[in-house]
Amino acid sequence: MSTGGFPGRPVRPGDRLRPVPGTSGSLLVDNIGELVTNEGRPGDPLGIRRGAALLVEDGQVAWVGSSRDAPAADRRTDAGGAAVLPGFVDSHAHLVFAGDRAAEFAARMAGEPYTGGGIRTTVGATRAASDGDLRATVGRLRAEMLRQGTTTVEIKSGYGLNVADEARSLRIAAEFTEDTTFLGAHVVPAEYADRPDDYVGMVCGPMLAAAAPYARWIDVFCERGAFDADHARAILACGQAVGLGVRVHANQLGPGPGVQLGVELGAASVDHCTHLTDADIDALASRRIDCMCAEGEHTVTVATLLPGAEFSTRSPYPDARRLLDAGVTVALATDCNPGSSYTSSMPFCIALAVREMRMTPAEAVWAATAGGAAALRRTDVGRLTPGARADLIILDAPSHLHLAYRPGVPLIRQVLHNGVPR
Ligand SMILES: [Zn+2]
């Protein structure tokens, strides 16, 4: 995918591959019943191959083809006729926090509405936590994700909301992922409640300066009760000026300006997209970008849907069908956070997307892999073709269909991350 002219430093095949102990030599994954490559062909975006094998060398996919033609390798894994997929790319997660909000969830399930106000509860706990506590939480959730097949994750700040705690949140996040996102504009913290202009000035000034060295992206919660279009535009423009790519939390709780602001700024992704007008969808569909995928292009701005949030706030789900039929590129992500979506499970999100958002299983699996990669403007993950990172899942099932067909069942038999069994 070309990223020329768009912010968000691109990651390309072979970039940032750290030498990992145990990856020397080649590994053949053989006897694959159904291999999802995402190389795509007209009518088959998943690029499914049957009776396939895949060769891993130096942490990358070196060869894909028929089991009959498989080359020799130093080691061999027999997939036993199971399905093999690219590792999930979870492009939206808030993992740097302390405490939990189980009581708030229980109150919501007893009938109280979700307003986003509980974020401030987590801010208090996060500021009071030690670096070690925060690092342990990120590590625990990252490990939980890996066990469920997620090999790439984006991690946001947004529970520090002062200069020191936003910077340390991103510094810790950067220990776990390349895709770190500065979300100083999550909500206006209590101490700035009566002077939001001053808070926006702080986010654009000293907070951005302290956060930017650890961040690839900048994000704003553009919503009633959080940041309006003018504040969001100002913050995102400051981030772009120092080289950060743009993402937006948009149109979650009601219709609003977030989606069209994201398109205007060339955002890589607008996330949530629960309440969209026809004009929002037209704006998303109107700007396209060349890519390496089968379709040959994506929309510049991906619509990232987060059904865990609707599940956990008992809210109406976004309509993925409307976006897909308009030609908008769709990603699925967990939104993993302690308030509105405390799930780390991409298989759960796939099942919700199929059952509740009118996606086919194939569309949901594509959105959870290649779609997430598009939302992060990455071409090295989300597919299993030569040159891609050897991030893959061997399912305990013969087909990707089982991810939605058997909801809640632990179907991830084995995960390879950078070619290393985990
Ligand atoms: Zn979020």
From TrEMBL:
Q: In which pathway does it act?
A: Amino-acid degradation; L-histidine degradation into L-glutamate; N-formimidoyl-L-glutamate from L-histidine: step 3/3
Q: Which cofactor does it need?
A: Zn(2+); Fe(3+)
Q: Which organism is it from?
A: Micromonospora echinospora
- Signal sequence, start to end: none
One MF annotation (Gene Ontology) recorded for this entry: imidazolonepropionase activity
What reactions does this protein catalyze? 4-imidazolone-5-propanoate + H2O = N-formimidoyl-L-glutamate
Q: How is the cofactor bound?
A: Binds 1 zinc or iron ion per subunit.
Q: Where is the Amidohydrolase-related domain?
A: 84-397
Q: Which InterPro entries match?
A: Amidohydro-rel, HutI, Metal-dep_hydrolase_composite, Metal_Hydrolase
UniProt name for this protein: Imidazolonepropionase
Transmembrane annotation, as ranges: none
